């Protein structure tokens, strides 16, 4: 069984994912955008028992629906507990195994996002042919309402 490692920037804190992620997506919600200071987040998720803290003590911030964990030293946000989905998610850019650099494999296989969530609350439109959801797909407990790449409702 494969083990994947995600670390903060200063390497004081780390988590491991045992086995393959259950899903990978792009999230455009305001919480992800603000937490990462980015246009959207790329993350993989799994059942919480598959993602364990292996080094350091993270600090956390909760919005109720999710709790994000970051390093108290370098402030890098590494993972989140998605309480509303009963899942734990790791931000793809924090993986060091697999490597996410120019020779890395982070965009391949189970780490390659298959959809966009909370797309209409985002600030960036992405033309990639992937399904885009107004909120969440039915598999995530959402209304399954898809939108076009420009954010307009699908007919």
Rg is 15 Å
H/E element order: EEEHEEEEEEEEEE
Gap from first CA to last CA: 43 Å
Q: Which structural class do you get from the secondary structure elements?
A: mainly beta
The neighbouring-strand order within the major sheet is: 6-7-8-9-4-3-11
Helical content stands at under 10%
Parts with pLDDT < 50 across at least 5 consecutive residues: none
Domain tally? 1
Q: Choose one word for the global shape.
A: globular
Strand coverage percent = 35-45%
CATH fold category name:
Metal Binding Protein, Guanine Nucleotide Exchange Factor, Chain A
Helix count from the secondary structure assignment: 1
The overall strand count is 13
Protein name: Glutathione-dependent formaldehyde-activating protein
Pfam families: GFA (PF04828)
GO molecular function, one term: metal ion binding
Family: Belongs to the Gfa family.
Descriptive account of the structure:
- The protein has 155 residues and is mainly beta.
- It has one domain (3-147): Metal Binding Protein, Guanine Nucleotide Exchange Factor, Chain A (Beta Complex).
- Helices cover 5% and strands 35% of the residues.
- The strands form three sheets. It has a seven-stranded mixed β-sheet. It has a four-stranded antiparallel β-sheet with strand order 5-2-1-10, with no helix packed on it. A two-stranded antiparallel ribbon has the order 12-13.
- Strand 7 (66-70) and strand 8 (77-82) form a beta hairpin.
- It is globular and about 50 Å long.
- The N and C termini lie far apart (43 Å).
- Belongs to the Gfa family.
- Keywords: Lyase, Metal-binding, Zinc.
- GO terms for molecular function: carbon-sulfur lyase activity; metal ion binding.
- It comes from Chrysochromulina tobinii.
- Residues 4-134 form the CENP-V/GFA domain.
């Amino acid at each position: 069984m494969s083990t994947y490692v995600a670390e903060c920037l200063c390497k004081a804190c780390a988590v491991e994912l045992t086995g393959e992620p259950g899903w990978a997506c792009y999230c455009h919600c305001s919480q992800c955008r603000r937490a990462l200071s980015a246009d959207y987040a790329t993350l993989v998720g799994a059942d919480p028992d598959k993602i364990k803290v292996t080094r350091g003590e993270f600090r956390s911030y909760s919005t109720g629906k999710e709790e994000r964990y970051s390093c108290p030293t370098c402030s890098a946000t590494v993972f989140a507990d998605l309480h509303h989905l009963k899942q734990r998610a790791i931000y793809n850019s924090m993986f060091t195994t697999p490597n996410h650099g120019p020779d890395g494999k982070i965009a391949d296989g189970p780490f390659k996002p298959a959809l966009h969530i909370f797309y209409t609350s985002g600030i960036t439109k992405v033309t990639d042919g992937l399904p885009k959801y107004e909120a969440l797909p039915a598999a995530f407990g959402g209304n399954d309402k898809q939108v076009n790449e420009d954010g307009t409702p699908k007919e």
